[in-house]
């Protein structure tokens, strides 16, 4: 078939690659301003795909994996940026795209808007609350510094700490600018907090995160959310020293304390050693002065109390008077007791004398005689009644019966007579036994025994009186010794015996300070073993040659 036109004919691939070369040659280096749209983070391959749009159009964009590591900040959805790269086409879909080599925010306003948005979100979570901020230790032993090990910041911090108060400093090296800055700073803060308290690497008592000044883009790593969260979660008090005094980052809000400069952070971390030494000296002098004033006040109180106490003999006067009265009363009581016992003994002896015994014997004999007479009268009356009854019965009874009754009566009379004799014998024996017992109770040996027993009781009473007197005397002596020891403890001469000297002026008044002594003034020095006189001032050469009397000296 013949050609109907002389227009060149291309295949799809040819026209696609021709367009690709044309676009890439015409737009090999372009800067495109737009808003990021459709950003979902890096792909599994490491590349990032999104779009750039404005109010009228949209263009696809791609950031290769090798370029993502060099970006100063991470792309975010809705962020207005300026992308630098080249245009290219994708023949497989007949679309074109922007291959980005560099990416930066579209002005400070966009970054500030992003920063303010992050700040509001973190503040709403309570990461910036003042209540959760911890106070710094007054004198830390170890300070951890998170910064670049090659910059001037670490040298300024070390120099300032060495000047103020040298302590151990542990540096965790990080990048303070670039894509990996935020991750390294957050890892350093977490790493310091993870150190054990007793491990080989000492756990810091305070942390300093520091960086020198720079633009907002240079400090952007410290505005990352990961850094702010790591600072807020730190169990170790943290000082933020990022940039200059006018530079504020999110870590400054999350830290426990913000320093205007890294040097200011070092000054906040440690006090000035010379000031501490001076303050300690001032406190020591104040303590010494207060101790001296307290001691002087107690000494004055002791002297006043000693004057208020009575003399030792006044302490013993009343107890001694009571003791003398008790001793006098004891002697009189012993005499009265001895007289009372002697009277009781005399009354007892009078009741058991020979005359009393004779009267008792006569009384018993009289009672025995009366008993015998009553017995004889009773027997005679019985005999008469028996004979009368026998006569009456003899007239009524036969002879045999009468004989039997007479025999029975005689037998009863004989039995009664025998009982009478037995009773009389028993009475006589009882009287004799009672007389013997009474005689035995009042024999001379018994009287001597009673007298010895009385003398023993008197000696026992004398012994108890002596022991009571000795006990009272020992108690009085113990109280006297206690009062004597109290007097010796309160007496100033015991202080002089330990080597101290009491200084008085010529009128006898104590001299307490050096300002009270004038040159050439005569003084009296009292030692533990005596007193001497001295004069204030250096002696002359002529006086050094003279021998000084025992009671005259020179006070240098």
Description:
With 556 residues, the protein is α/β, with parallel strands linked by helices. The protein folds into 4 domains: 12-106, Nucleic acid-binding proteins (OB fold (Dihydrolipoamide Acetyltransferase, E2P)); 128-271, Rossmann fold, CATH 3.40.50.261; 332-458; 497-555, no CATH class. It is 55% helix and 16% strand. The protein has helices spanning 12-26, 65-68, 108-124, 152-164, 181-194, 225-233, 250-254, 262-269, 273-308, 312-351, 354-396, 399-441, 444-490, 492-497, 541-545; strands at residues 30-37, 48-53, 58-63, 80-90, 95-105, 142-147, 168-173, 206-211, 238-242, 257-258, 502-505, 522-527, 530-536, 552-555. The strands form 3 sheets. A 5-stranded mixed β-barrel has the order 1-2-3-5-4. Strands 7-6-8-9-10 form a 5-stranded parallel β-sheet, with helices on both faces. A 4-stranded mixed β-sheet has the order 11-12-13-14. Helix 4 (152-164) packs parallel to helix 8, helix 10 packs antiparallel against helix 13 (444-490) and helix 11 runs antiparallel to helix 12. 13% of the residues are buried. Residues 393-398 and 544-556 have low confidence and may be disordered.
Give the SSE map:
Layout: H1 12-26, E1 30-37, E2 48-53, E3 58-63, H2 65-68, E4 80-90, E5 95-105, H3 108-124, E6 142-147, H4 152-164, E7 168-173, H5 181-194, E8 206-211, H6 225-233, E9 238-242, H7 250-254, E10 257-258, H8 262-269, H9 273-308, H10 312-351, H11 354-396, H12 399-441, H13 444-490, H14 492-497, E11 502-505, E12 522-527, E13 530-536, H15 541-545, E14 552-555
Helix pairs in contact: 4-8, 5-6, 10-13, 11-12
């Amino acid at each position: 078939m013949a050609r109907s036109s002389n227009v060149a004919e291309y295949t799809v691939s040819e026209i696609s690659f021709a367009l690709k070369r044309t676009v890439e040659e015409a737009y090999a280096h372009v800067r495109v301003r737009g808003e990021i749209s459709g950003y979902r983070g890096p792909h599994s391959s490491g590349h990032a795909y999104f779009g750039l749009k404005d109010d009228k159009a949209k263009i696809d964009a791609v950031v290769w994996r090798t370029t993502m590591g060099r970006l100063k900040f991470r792309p975010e959805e809705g962020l207005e940026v300026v992308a630098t790269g080249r245009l290219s086409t994708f023949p497989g879909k007949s679309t074109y795209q922007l291959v980005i080599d560099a990416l930066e925010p579209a002005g400070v306003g966009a970054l500030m808007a992003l920063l303010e948005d992050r700040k509001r979100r973190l503040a709403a979570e309570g990461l910036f609350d003042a209540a959760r901020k911890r106070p710094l230790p007054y004198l830390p032993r170890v300070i951890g510094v998170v910064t670049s090990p090659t910059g001037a910041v670490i040298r300024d911090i070390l120099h300032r700490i060495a000047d103020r108060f040298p302590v151990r400093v542990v540096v965790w090296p990080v990048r303070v600018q670039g894509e990996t800055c935020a991750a390294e700073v957050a890892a350093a803060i977490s790493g310091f907090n993870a150190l054990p308290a007793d491990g080989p690497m000492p756990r810091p008592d305070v942390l300093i995160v520091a960086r020198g000044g720079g633009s907002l883009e240079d400090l952007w790593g410290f505005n990352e959310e990961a850094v702010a969260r790591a600072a807020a979660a730190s169990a170790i008090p943290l000082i933020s020293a990022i940039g200059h005094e006018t530079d504020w980052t999110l870590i400054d809000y999350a830290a426990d304390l913000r320093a205007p400069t890294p040097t200011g952070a070092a000054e906040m971390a440690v006090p000035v050693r010379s000031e501490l030494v001076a303050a300690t000296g001032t406190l020591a002098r104040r303590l010494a002065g207060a101790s001296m004033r307290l001691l002087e006040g107690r000494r004055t109180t002791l002297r006043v109390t000693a004057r208020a106490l009575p003399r030792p003999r006044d302490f013993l006067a009343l107890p001694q008077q009571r003791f003398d009265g008790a001793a006098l009363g004891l002697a009189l009581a012993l005499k009265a007791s001895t007289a009372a016992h002697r009277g009781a003994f005399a009354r007892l002896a009078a009741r058991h004398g020979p005359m009393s015994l004779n009267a008792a014997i006569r009384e018993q004999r009289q009672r025995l005689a009366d008993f015998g007479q009553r017995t004889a009268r009773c027997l005679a009356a019985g005999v008469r009644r028996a004979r009368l009854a026998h006569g009456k019965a003899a007239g009524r009874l036969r002879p045999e019966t009468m004989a039997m009754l007479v025999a029975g009566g005689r037998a009863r009379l004989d039995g009664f007579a025998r009982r009478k004799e037995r009773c009389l014998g028993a009475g006589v024996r009882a009287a004799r036994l009672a007389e013997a017992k009474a005689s035995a109770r009042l024999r001379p040996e018994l009287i001597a025994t009673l007298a010895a027993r009385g003398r023993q009781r008197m000696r026992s009473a004398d012994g108890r009186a002596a022991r009571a007197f000795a006990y009272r005397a020992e108690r009085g002596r113990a109280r006297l010794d206690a009062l004597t020891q109290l007097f010796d403890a309160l007496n100033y001469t015991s202080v002089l015996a330990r080597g101290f000297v009491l200084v008085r002026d010529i009128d006898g008044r104590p001299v307490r300070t050096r300002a009270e002594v004038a040159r050439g003034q005569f003084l009296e020095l009292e030692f533990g073993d005596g007193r001497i006189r001295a004069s204030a001032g250096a002696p002359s050469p002529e006086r050094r040659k003279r021998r000084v009397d025992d009671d005259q000296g020179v006070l240098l």
